[in-house]
Amino acid sequence: MTSLARFRPALPRRMVLPAILLAALLVVPFAAPLITPHDPVQIAVRDRLAAPSLEHWLGQDEFGRDRLARVLYGGQVSLMVAFTATTLACIVGTLFGLIGAYFRGPFEFLTTRLADVVLCFPPILLALLVVTLFGPGTGTLISVLSVLYFPAFARIAFSEALRVSALDFVAASRALGTPSRRIVMGTILPNIAGPVSVQYSLTAAAAITIESGLSFLGLGVVPPAPSWGQMIRGARQFMNQDPLGIIIPCVALTLTIYAINFFCDRLRDTLDPKGATGGGKDDVSVPVAGNATPVEDADVVAVIRDLRLEVRQPGRSVEVIRDVSLTLRANQCTALVGESGSGKSLSSLALMGLLPGAIRQAGGSLMLRRKSGQMVDLGALGPKALEGLRGNDLAMIFQEPMTSLNPVHKVGAQMVEAIRAHRKVPPAEAKARAISLLELVGINEPARRFDGYPHEMSGGMRQRVMIAMALSCEPRLLIADEPTTALDVTIQAEIIELLQRLRSEYAEGLSLLFISHNLGVVAEIADRVAVMYSGQVVEEGPAAQVLADPHHPYTVALLESMPSAHDEMHSARGDRLRAIEGTPPLPDRRPSGCAFRTRCPVALPACAGIEPPLYQSGERSARCIRAPEAGEQAA
Ligand SMILES: Nc1ncnc2c1ncn2[C@@H]1O[C@H](COP(=O)(O)OP(=O)(O)OP(=O)(O)O)[C@@H](O)[C@H]1O
């Protein structure tokens, strides 16, 4: 039992229903001899148009043939023709598209021109022409349908492969000397699998319809062999007397097309790793029952308590965020720092209710105080309620001002839209507010900039616009995810100064959650700092104290590895820069005990045995068994 369970192929839950439905529709026609003993071509003229009976469950057709046998055996023919033709078209078209897009030059010319030539002919006319020339029959149908549908695959594969080829990871593979065949099949093909699989579903459905249409016209499957198109053709003349005759093949057609579309739609979502496992109710952030307790202190704007996030992989779940707790207060800036992959972004995205599809909340609670003063459990809110909160009660600015603004809309239109999403104000009033916000964030000639496009602005100006948009509805919590990383040093300083100024001028009492790699910037802006490592907060406390006198060896190492002009950081590290040895462990390869112990210069044998809790010392806490020691020394 255990070994069977271990070797059971892990079919994602979202695929189970469509797979069962499709498998049933595909298997049932091929199990026809087990379901009915009747011959689909055996005529019984005496019993023509007979009603359903115990012997003939779906009745008999105009020649007295058993309808159940005909719909089942007819399904075999229709499905075989449609799937063989679609698979051939998919393989040939996708290969053409991939080769044309990757190698360009004559390959591109051949792919696009060949596809253009075939696309010039209306499909049904081309099919009629070929069938008339070569005579009806299953082989002709498969050939004509493959030729008809290959250009659609070639075009989709070509345009998607062009897009993917231009991405950095393909350039990186080329730079590493990876052979072209491996880049095309191993790197580009998986990235275009989503749109190609959608095209497959549409084509298979269309091929079934065209096969039925041609058979209906007498140009498809040759009688007396059954097919759904032929059944409709035969039943058409008697449809007033015997509607069942036409309903049965139509229902079979509709169900099959629906099952194929349903399956391919889910398959596309499953194949796309970015959106993987999204969609099912259990896959979005689910309300977590129980341990969310209201917070009385009116200064507290948000509380993250024991947050656990996990990524679902086939057959298992991996914890990427573990027991993260943070309290964010009004008029306070809390900085989240840590190496890449430590979990800073996911923790903040969880607050926004914007976790990627593959990540789900497995435990803990996220509480937010609304502008009304009411404390809400974000995990218990539905998508609509969360939408109402985002931009209104909490807002976020991102790292890349170049891509955060929509390039095809004017700056002003985007700001007005953000304002009117939460406030029922007339457009003129929203415009006036947008212009005053642009002025507030230090944009010169705000009225002129209001009518400009994002590409007419510098990176620093765009980040100012993003900040203005984020503050447009006066949220109580602003999350800034590395807002200055993409900017040059002087602009960075201006943006930090702007955030500081806005914070001090903010009447409502803004809580700022500031995510950064840059400890110099953190020293300048943060009141409190939380250091993250491998999905956990390993040290937390007042920024000045933590940066000047870190209690966790990871914080010490982080400070020693970063250049900074700030005095409090000099005292912690002397003046030499030192890289942190090794790399952070992957979430599924953490060592036993303390996750930092394999890189820690002061690790003890005991560190392998226990996962250290957060040791509290006054306003500070650190997740290290040596933290109490460090606290005593400092005292
Ligand atoms: N969509 C995802 N699917 C699977 N794992 C993910 C996903 N997003 C993040 N992770 C994993 O979660 C962990 C935390 O990632 P996160 O993006 O929060 O790190 P970060 O500290 O913000 O890094 P950076 O500073 O580079 O943005 C990492 O191990 C990362 O690989």
Automatic annotation (TrEMBL):
Family matches, as SUPFAM superfamilies: MetI-like, P-loop containing nucleoside triphosphate hydrolases
Domain of life, per lineage: Bacteria
GO biological process: peptide transport; transmembrane transport
Main location: membrane
Single GO MF descriptor: ATP binding
Pfam families assigned: ABC_tran, BPD_transp_1, oligo_HPY
InterPro entries (UniProt xref): AAA+_ATPase, ABC_Ni/Peptide_Import, ABC_transporter-like_ATP-bd, ABC_transporter-like_CS, MetI-like, MetI-like_sf, Oligopep_ABC_C, P-loop_NTPase
Domain ABC transmembrane type-1 stretches: 75-264
Key word Transport present: yes
Record bears the keyword ATP-binding: yes
Stretches assigned to the ABC transporter domain: 304-559
Keywords in alphabetical order: ATP-binding, Cell membrane, Membrane, Nucleotide-binding, Transmembrane, Transmembrane helix, Transport
Listed transmembrane segments: 77-102, 114-134, 140-158, 243-263
Stored SMART domains: AAA (SM00382)
Membrane topology: Peripheral membrane protein; Multi-pass membrane protein
Subcellular location: Cell inner membrane; Cell membrane
Gene Ontology cellular component annotations, sorted alphabetically: plasma membrane
NCBIfam families referenced in this protein's UniProt entry, alphabetically: oligo_HPY (TIGR01727)
Family: Belongs to the ABC transporter superfamily.
Protein name: Oligopeptide ABC transporter
Organism per entry: Frigidibacter mobilis
